[in-house]
Each structure stands twice: as C-alpha cells, then as structure tokens.
Specification:
By secondary structure, the chain is mostly helical. It has one domain. The chain is built from eight helices and no strands. Helix 3 packs across helix 7.
Length: 314
Amino acid sequence: MIFAASAFEHVLDSLDWHLFESLHLHIPLPGAHHWPTEKGFGITKYSILMFLAAGLICWIYIPLAQRIRTGEAPTGKFWNFFEVFLTFVREEIAKPYIGKEADRYVPYLWTVFLFVLFCNLLGMFPFMGSPTASFATTSILAIGSFIFIHAASIVRFGWKSHLLSFAPHMDMPLAMKLGLWAMLWPIEFFGLALKCFVLAVRLFANMFAGHMVLATILLFIPAVQYTGLFWPVTVGSVIGVILLSLLELFVAFLQAFLFTFLTALFLGGVLEHAEHAAHGDHHEEHGHDAHGHGHDPHADAGAEDVHKKAGHAQ
C-alpha cells in the first residue's frame, strides 16, 4: 500500500516537481489565492510540460510549414519523419471518415494529434511526466473536440440543419413530430457529449495507469535498499521497466491516434447528418416553389401517368 500511495503521488500533478523535491521547489502564480482548495493553484509541473510540448511542436513544424510554403521540398530524414505524421492524419484519418471536405478540418486534427502525442511522449523521459495522465488535461481536450464538432456543423450548414441533424426525418403531424423531437434532441446531444467524455477517460486512464505501474516497479528498488535482495530486485525492476516502457511508447502513439480518429469519426457523422438535413430542407423548399402553396398528390400522379403513356407511345 505504501508503494501504491507513493507511485500515485508521483504520477499526480503538483506544485512541486519531483525532480527537485529535495529543494522544495514551489512555483505559485503571482497573487495566487487558496481557492478552490487549501493547496491553491499555480504553475504546476504539468502546466510547464504542456508549454514544453507546445513549444516543441512550434519549433519543429513552423519551419517545416515555411519550407513547404516556399515550394522547397522538405528533404532529409528529420523533416520527412515529422511530415509523415501530418500525411498520416490527413490521408488515413481525415479523408476516409470526414469526406471530400476533410481539408477544412485537418488543421484541428493535426493540432490535437501532435499535442496529445508530444504530451504522451514526455512521460517517457525520467523525472518528467505526461500531462495527459491528468484528467483535467484530457477533459479540456475532449471539451474542445465537443465544441469543435458542433461549431463545424453550424458554420458549414447553419443552425437549422445542425439541429435537425439530431432527429430523423418523420412523415407525421407536426404536433407528434415536435413531441418526438423534444425527446430525441436531448438524447442525441448528451449522447455526443458522452462520447467525448469517454475520449477523456480513455486517454487519461491509459496514460495514468501505465506511468503508475512504472513508478511502482521502480519504487521496489529503494524499498529493499538495505537488504540482500537489493541487486536481484534492482536488475529485475530495471528490465521490467525497460520492457514496459517499450509498451508505453506504443501506447503513446496509439492513444494519440485513437483520440484523433474518434474525433474525426464523430465529426464526420454529425456533418453527414447535417448535410442530409440541409438537402432535405432544400428539396422541400424547391418542391414548395414548384407546386405553389397547395400540393395536390392526385395531380402529381396524373402527370406521372401522362409521362408513362408518352413513353410507351414513343
């Protein structure tokens, strides 16, 4: 239990960086208040690491974008290695699951993928950590995807089509239709919210659990420091951590892919439904204009019979 508690504290975000724990490093924000908890709030370890991840992304990809903009080929192993991430997200995630207008939304998917990936990979370095092992971080990322999905649909097809996309088209009296829509809209809305919440939980749980296991294994070494089991436990712990670190490296890429893939999948579904709703409204308006204010189904049937007879005559 002591090992689990120590590993748990090591993985949690804090105002004291474990690397400098002996120096009692504390980095509060200027004028920080003791709210909402007694610990207050300030610049935490994960806050610094998130800025570091963002800085690394800008340092790598801004020069790459500038070279591509000038028409210069990004030759070399370094540039090709980082460019392949962008190509993969665009060709294997965005286009298959969003469709022909995927390029509109690729910049957001690139940003999410790279930020999650870099945050995950920072946890592979000693004395650092993964900001995505914090539920607060993954929650903000999921909320951002939730807002982006709705905003993209509204901007592309308008409020009316976006709202109609959450309820199927039904040929029934208006009163019954409104009653069913009143039940379906909250269900569909909270269904999408729940999907985004699961995004946050999945990413957080995988990264937190993996780093906690690694920390627990390493803590076996100081626990047997003054016993005859020190060297066997040390060798076994180091080998176990190396093997699990390789697995964690795979998980870091996998979780970045899953977060981006599911965001694109949810976005594609909402956009598809909104497009159908928009086309349905267009067809209804077009039919209304063509037949006037009154629509006579018998007249339509008669006209269809005339066309059929004309075809047989020909």
